[in-house]
Amino acid sequence: MRYALRRRMWSAALIVAFFLGWEVLCLALGVSDLVVPRPSQVMSTLIARFPVLWPHILQTLWTTMIGFGLGVIVGVVIGALIGTSRVAYDTAYPLLIGFSSIPKVAVVPIFVLWFGAGPVPAVLTALAMCFFPIVVNIATGLATTEPEMEDVLKSLGASKMDLLLNVGLPRTMPFFFASLKIAATYAFVGTVLAETVASNKGIGNVMMSASSNFDVPLVFAGLFILAFLGVALYVLFSLIEGRVVGWANRRTDLSPS
After folding, report:
1. Rounded to an integer, what distance in angstroms lies between the CA atom of residue 138 and that of residue 132?
2. What is the Cα–Cα distance from 112 to 69, expressed in whole angstroms?
3. pTM exceeds 0.90 for this model
4. Which parts of the sequence belong to the ABC transmembrane type-1 domain (predicted)?
5. φ and ψ at 41, to 5 degrees?
6. What digits encode the pLDDT tens for the residues 106-147?
């Protein structure tokens, strides 16, 4: 327990030291805020303009969450199919790899052409960005199921669906939560990417407008907001993971409490 507390204190101290070093370095070198603003300038901008930024934060957050939720559903379904069927693996996996290799900035104009400017292209871009890591991890988790266990359960009368629901999917939970942490950050990237191209609302649109007006502190304020939202989701999924699959996490507190 003391080791875990000491580790968290060291992590917090290093984060604070990073921002202090950033502040001091900008002051010492006389860096203009048009190049890299100081953290204090970014925070003052964020506080002063927070009432204006709040609707854009909500827009980006709910758009990302919808795209992320749809990406989780699509990723789990496709991952389960690929992980349980060799035919589906041979058919779908090359297509998925090809799709994931396409820069999503090239896909956004297609979404705009189909659905017009607004939140729909952002939702679809977030989905397109985040579902592939979930597919890969679910398929990998299912592939780790021992054939011997499957043979024993089949001899006891278990169907393929029983194996999937009672053995396969529970064993994929560590892989699933690992993919959620990655997919959540990808979803934010997809949303902001679409907002810079095809939206008049959201943090991506704010950052694009601020950069065109050379308001660099506001651009960095948007980056800070996105970083905070990403970290918050990461922490949330880590807490849920600890409750659901704590048995699979490697013990790090080796010192006696």
Report:
1. 10
2. 21
3. no
4. 57-237
5. -65, -40
6. 888 888 888 887 888 999 999 988 888 888 888 877 777 666
